Amino acid sequence: MEYRGKKVHFIGIGGIGMSALAQYFLDQGAHVTGSDREVSPTTELLGKKGIQVVSGQKAENVPAGTEMIVYSDSVPENNPERVRATDLGITQISYFAMLGKISEGKYTIAVSGTHGKTTTTGMLAKILHDSGADETAIVGSIVKDFQSNYLHGDSNMFVVEACEYKNHLLELSPHILVITNLEWDHTDYFPSLTSLQDTFKKAIARVPANGAIVTDPQNRNITSLLTNAKARIIDYTKEPAYNLRLPGEFNQNNARAAAAATRAVRPEIMDDSIATSLSNFHGTWRRFEYKGKTKSGADVYDDYAHHPTAVRETLKALRAKTKGKIIVAFHPHLYSRTRDLLKEFATAFSDADKVFIAPIYAAREVDDGSISSEILAERIRATGTIAVALSSFSEIERSLSEAAQDDVIMTMGAGDIYKVADALVKK
């Protein structure tokens, strides 16, 4: 599809995927505008690239002459800008559907799985870029090595982070499918692990015979899904350990998956080239990101972890780096996830000395009274870890400000808890 000269407006442009897609359209020669609820690091990034972004979502935000609307999948039909577009007869397409259209015409490498997608995608994009693949990449965070969540490329290769929520993964047409791992998540959509596995089973079956599936075939939640695969199976666990800037065994597995996917695409690549790219990978925004020190000298980290396994493994890696106390500020994401995985969350903070729990980030959900941050704090305390539910970010910030010089602070969660980390290091 030709986008040069086309006027395209993005609703929810500040979303991590939407902002990358907006940059892609800009590269294709489209005239791009957008709106979002508030200013964020991604909207600031877009502004620097010359994309006009307005805050707030009102009908008048849709510019005159707009020919196409791309909207975040979290934006409902009754959004005033979408209503305006409907009234004007403007074509509307969701973010994931648009990714699918792009994927159809390219040699696509899709990175999926419950944990590690973003880091693996960033690592893969860097290895390929360093090797001269000249690929286009859309990553679910700002990659420090590119200073963006988007990488421009002129070849037909397309690296994209894939999301399984609402079966969005099935919009893509990958030649190479990476599955980092698989656990029950997005419990508001998938009622069970089996239903989530069904989505991945369909995705696996769609990879062509001349493609590849890069995964851990011994993973108990993945093994049975591979039986009907047409494509060859590549076991990323056979890759060696790499010298990384990023800590933790989970990042070693991300690196292995990225390396194995690279070999599937470029079998001629030298081992040293992969190792050098990975050793120079600086990481991404909100993935074990070091933010600085508080006024009292405590180190501050921030991480996107919002699933019990990710929380546990991230804190395990942090514990290995420090001898001081670890103080965590956790922002639970979704009532459904917190409720359905409560048992797992209760034990995920064992490497922390104290945990402050923020009010649950509702996002797309309504509170039915079945779960709360107080309930989560109580369950964590029952395992022997100090946990306190606080009513606001400002309360959490004040409590964290009391951390001593040798303490380490980690803000965690998929919401805006990173703003607390930013505030702590600015004081």
Would you give an account of this structure?
The structure is a single chain. With 427 residues, this protein is α/β, with parallel strands linked by helices. The protein folds into 3 domains: 7-94, Rossmann fold (3-Layer(aba) Sandwich), CATH 3.40.50.720; 105-279, Mur-like, catalytic domain (UDP-N-acetylmuramoyl-L-alanine:D-glutamate ligase, 3-Layer(aba) Sandwich), CATH 3.40.1190; 289-426, Protein-Tyrosine Phosphatase, Chain A (Alpha-Beta Complex). It is 34% helix and 21% strand. It has 14 helices and 18 strands. The protein has helices at 16-27, 41-48, 80-88, 95-104, 117-130, 193-206, 249-265, 271-279, 308-321, 335-340, 342-347, 373-381, 393-400, 418-426; strands spanning 7-11, 31-36, 52-55, 68-71, 91-94, 107-112, 136-143, 148-151, 157-161, 176-179, 212-215, 232-235, 289-293, 299-303, 326-331, 354-357, 386-389, 408-413. Strands 8-7-9-6-10-11-12 form a 7-stranded mixed β-sheet, with helices on both faces. Strands 13-14-18-15-16-17 form a 6-stranded mixed β-sheet, with helices on both faces. α5 (117-130) packs across α8. It starts with 6 loop residues before the first strand and ends with a helix. The mean pLDDT is 96.
How are the SSEs ordered, and which strands pair?
Layout (H helix, E strand, L loop, with lengths): L6 E5 L4 H12 L3 E6 L4 H8 L3 E4 L12 E4 L8 H9 L2 E4 H10 L2 E6 L4 H14 L5 E8 L4 E4 L5 E5 L14 E4 L13 H14 L5 E4 L16 E4 L13 H17 L5 H9 L9 E5 L5 E5 L4 H14 L4 E6 L3 H6 L1 H6 L6 E4 L15 H9 L4 E4 L3 H8 L7 E6 L4 H9 L1
Parallel strand pairs: 1-2, 1-4, 2-3, 4-5, 6-9, 6-10, 7-9, 10-11, 11-12, 14-18, 15-16, 15-18, 16-17
Antiparallel strand pairs: 7-8, 13-14
